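In response to reviewer comment 3 from the previous cycle, which asked for concrete evidence that the modeling workflow produces usable outputs, we include below a single protein chain processed end to end. The sequence was submitted unchanged, and the resulting structure tokens are shown without manual editing.
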Amino acid sequence: MGVDTFNKMWDIPRMENIFNTFTPSELAEITGLSTTMQRDWRRRGILATSDGHAKFDIYDLTEVYFMARMSESGIGPLKSGPHAFFAGLNMLSGVAKFVANEFGQPDIACKIFEAFVSSITNRINSPPYMENVARETPQAFDGVFIVWANGQTGLYKSFDKESARLGENATELNGPVIVANMEALAAQFSTRLRPFIQIGE
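The workflow returned the following structure tokens.
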């Protein structure tokens, strides 16, 4: 979906670069994943390979940003990767709120998110997506990513609600637990993305 189509569909101020592709160096600056690590991730099948120069869209960036932040916490991309699709969509929802606020029209956040989803329809209809849907829980779009003490991982509504559901004797709580707030990740990502987009009247 191009910028003009976006503007006509939603009748909102001009947004540029959001639906463009980003270079490996831009991905590195936005996500913190160096070009060297990008090559390693491509070699390991974590990032898509390309016959020519690698290009990434905004959704690629959210996936990579999520996996890179998890790697900093000791959770490698092979473990966080199965959740990256839904985590990326979750983050795009946060980015939509950020962009809407930049427009001074917070009420259009849902429309912007719908446009994001429309721009990646080919992924949503792809077999890997359907495999991810089958693996994920109904809480796919909820607010925290948790790495439990027993090594299990998932996206949940909140740590408090899920830990209460599990009970204090659950193996998931028998040791250190890592909790990543998806709203905070989206806010951090949006701040790093801001220099790469242009929002006009």
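The two ends are 20 Å apart (CA to CA). We consider this sufficient to address the reviewer's concern, and the full set will be provided in the supplementary archive.
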